[in-house]
Amino acid sequence: MSGxxxxxxxxxxxxxxxxxxxxxxxxxxxLDISPSYVALLERNxxxxxxxxxxxxxxxxxxxxxxxxxxxxxxxxxxxxxxLRDPIFADIDxxxxxxxxxxxxxxxISEALLRLHGAYTREQAALADLSAGGGAQTPDPVxxxxxxxxxxxxxxxxxxxRAEGIAALVAESGDPKAYLAQRHGIRTRSxxxxxxxxxxxxxxxxxxxxxxxxxxxxxxxxxxAALQIAYQECRGDINALTREGGFASQTTSNLIRRALAGxxxxxxxxxxxxxxxxxxxxxxxxxxVARLFGTSFEQTAHRMTTLHKPNAEKVPFxxxxxxxxxxxxxxxxxxxxxxxxxxxxxxxxxxxxxxAAPGRVHTQWLELPDGQRFFSIARTVESGGGAYRQPRILRxxxxxxxxxxxxxxxxxxxxxxxxxxxxxxxxxxxxxxxxDCAARALPPIGREVMAEDYRRGxxxxxxxxx
Length: 465
Fold this sequence. Notes:
Organism: Novosphingobium sediminicola
Number of helices: 18
Helix content: 40-55%
CATH architecture of the largest domain: 2-Layer Sandwich
GO molecular function, one term: DNA-binding transcription factor activity
Family: Belongs to the short-chain fatty acyl-CoA assimilation regulator (ScfR) family.
Number of strands: 9
Number of domains: 4
Keywords: DNA-binding, Transcription, Transcription regulation
Strand content: 5-15%
Radius of gyration: 30 Å
Largest sheet: 6 strands, mixed
CATH topology of the largest domain: Beta-Lactamase
Order of helices and strands: HHHHHHHHHHHEHEEHHHHHHEEEEEE
Shape: elongated
């Protein structure tokens, strides 16, 4: 005749200890056992005795009915329910194997339950979005960003066209002179009240490019280069836009605007010359910007496009945001996890750039999955130029994988494996770091614990599954 079945409830004990805010040492003292024995119990390497269950109930005023269940059987039932999901229909999953998993590997069982919980909540969220019509109404900005990101913000046909144009512009002296000589377009600077709020306007009838007279020199050059892009590369831009097959005209317009800006930047910073310069100056953005007569933002933006085969440089991710955290530009040339969403983590010092305008901030970053990056952030200013003209202060950041950082002047001599990195997340909704005091929202797929017994430093206590 077999004896009573051993009682294992390690994950339940660990969950209880965390809810009570106790260390293993503190719980061991309460139960009059050693900390190592608590660790063995939590890992299901030791069964609970009747005496220990009574001690636990007395120490923390718990109902014995809440403790008496079979943890392995409970996990087994929950796993069986999960594995009935149609997504697993074609996999042979014998009940005995599921029971063995639940009893022998409770940690893995907990991980599977947590993943499935996140999956089902995401499915429900998508269903709600679809029911509300969101799925039928794509976001034009997100769609445009996906199009550019899918090509790593590199358009070789545009770079090739711009390279030839840049040589001719150099012969003419500058973009304004080139417009006059090649296209008969005169560039004029006019006061703001005449421009009626516009910074650039092309007067087709009189063949004039009109620019507001408060523009900085590098912005005026860029606007002239932009007009060249529309004059000479309109067909190339339209062909690339048609390739996307976009559902809305807004998306197509956003893409056309982005591609025209790409051409303008490539005219002012032609690929080969620019690529040589960034290597020679070790990616010093300010030094390269002075060399090409461009702004800090224009130069940083251009650095995300250097992916020509056999002439590739450090792959970067680019982000621009305002003081409220709104992201107005996102460009990916590095496979950075922030490419589709994110960038709002307050632990990333791109947000601190506003406290010291004009200064370059550097930071090593580490995501929850262990990926490491290095970032450069600085504020940039647009608008202004006159006393009552509004000035917009934004921050831009470039980030690259940690292994590339020693090539940058900002991290010369550093060993990426030894530096201390800030633990950031893609966004609060996608970050599962449980102890982040800066968290604004709970992550998708995690339940928030009640705080009857304990309130931690983190804004939300997260349940195990």
